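Design request, tokens follow.
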């Protein structure tokens, strides 16, 4: 078993081990590219502006191990979406026995990346590695250097899938610190429509997961994408998600982050074709010493495009959150409509939020707004509920749930939405109980 110390040269053992694993030529070439980039970039530090508020001390002080060569059996029944096409990965390893794709319409591909690469898929050959910022982002480079497998979804032109696609990544499947590099490639061809539910879960042990998702959306295609992060509270989750949208396409995304000691996601969106639209909504709930970071860059590269962002945070204990939102409007991107909002609710005087919305506008006929708020619950609203016979703690929980509900209600898959509503309610009740006992 290969062990990786996360100080200087921390990942050499892991990189050497993965480089020696058999894989299709495409994946081997990507590993080489990723390793070359990671050797130049190394791990980031606080002196770098993009990482100024993201502490990696917990990673550098840990010793991670590569996962076992055979995925252990995992019970994912609590997260299973009925009637969904299911792909399961355990510590980055495809778990065929736990997956259940079912019968698919002609032309639809829902499989692991190794199968897609070995079968000669043109979509995999053209798009895998095309969007991930290997030369700029250290964890995108590390993921690519460690790539062994992943999820591949291709929806052909004109196809509308009536079943959601569920991808479950399980990290820390054993009582040891593991390192995994989940990878997802989604190609939605022209005038197609699909819903993808991407879940990252973990039950025991610390882990380091650095997932990379690349999404290519064709003309007039529509993709609904729900991302849920519920890893162990000792886990570290450092994700990169990149997408490009062709003319007339639509992307609707909801990102929910509940777990992890450190959970950071870097999102890049390019509205490449005219009349494209991207809607990105997010909710992070952190307590104790947790930290949740979100970094979003949306580039309007063509005229008449729309982007909406609404991210909400709930913080308790000594938790921290970072929101960096950046909207770039190119010179030719006239008639742009871009809106960005970050709202944070503090349940503790010790919680800290760093919110930094940004606009870079090089066109003159645009409508762009951005803003952020950080505060506590409205005392008048609390008083109103108490005047109706509702206890103080119950009033706070009701108002906090309503705050989160604006994001949760946008999740299009009912089972996922209802389960998350219960999870958030249970988490808030636990926070309230913890405060009572202090």
């Amino acid at each position: 078993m290969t062990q990786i110390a996360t100080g200087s040269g921390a990942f050499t053992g892991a990189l050497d081990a993965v480089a020696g694993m058999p894989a299709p030529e495409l994946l081997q070439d990507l590993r080489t590219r990723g390793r070359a980039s990671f050797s130049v970039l190394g791990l980031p530090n606080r002196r770098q502006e993009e990482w100024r508020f993201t502490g990696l001390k917990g990673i550098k002080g840990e010793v991670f191990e590569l996962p076992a060569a055979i995925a252990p059996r995992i019970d994912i029944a609590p997260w299973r979406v009925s009637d969904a096409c299911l792909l399961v990965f355990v510590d980055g390893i495809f778990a065929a026995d736990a997956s259940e794709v079912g019968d698919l319409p002609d032309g639809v591909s829902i499989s692991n990346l190794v199968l897609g690469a070995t079968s000669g898929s043109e979509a995999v050959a053209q798009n895998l590695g095309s969007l991930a910022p290997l030369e700029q982002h250290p964890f995108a480079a590390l993921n690519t250097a460690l790539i062994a497998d992943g999820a591949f979804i291709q929806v052909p032109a004109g196809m509308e899938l009536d079943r959601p696609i569920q991808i479950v990544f399980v990290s820390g499947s054993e009582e040891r610190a593991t390192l995994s590099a989940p990878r997802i490639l989604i190609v939605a061809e022209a005038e197609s429509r699909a819903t993808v539910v991407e879940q990252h879960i973990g039950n025991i042990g610390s882990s380091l997961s650095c997932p990379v998702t690349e999404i290519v959306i064709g003309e007039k295609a529509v993709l609904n994408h729900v991302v849920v992060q519920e890893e162990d509270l000792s886990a570290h989750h450092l994700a990169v998600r990149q997408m490009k949208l062709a003319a007339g396409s639509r992307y609707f995304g909801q990102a929910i982050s509940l777990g992890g000691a450190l959970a950071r996601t870097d999102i890049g969106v390019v509205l490449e074709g005219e009349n494209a639209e991207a809607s990105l909504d997010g909710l992070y709930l952190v307590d104790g010493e947790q930290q949740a970071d979100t970094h979003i860059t949306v580039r309007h590269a063509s005229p008449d495009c729309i982007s909406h962002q609404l991210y909400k945070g709930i913080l308790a204990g000594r938790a921290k959150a970072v929101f960096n939102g950046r909207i770039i409007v190119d010179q030719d991107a006239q008639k742009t409509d871009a809106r960005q909002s970050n709202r944070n609710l503090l349940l503790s005087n010790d919680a800290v939020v760093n919110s930094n919305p940004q606009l870079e506008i090089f066109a003159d006929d645009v409508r762009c707004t951005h803003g952020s708020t950080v505060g506590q619950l409205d005392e008048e609203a609390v008083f109103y509920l108490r005047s109706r016979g509702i206890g103080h703690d119950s009033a706070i929980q009701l108002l906090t749930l309503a705050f989160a509900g604006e994001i949760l209600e946008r999740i299009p898959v009912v089972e996922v939405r209802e389960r998350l509503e219960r999870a958030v309610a249970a988490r808030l009740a636990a926070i309230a109980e913890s405060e009572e006992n202090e």
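Comment from the thread starter after seeing the answer: thanks! The two ends are 43 Å apart (CA to CA).
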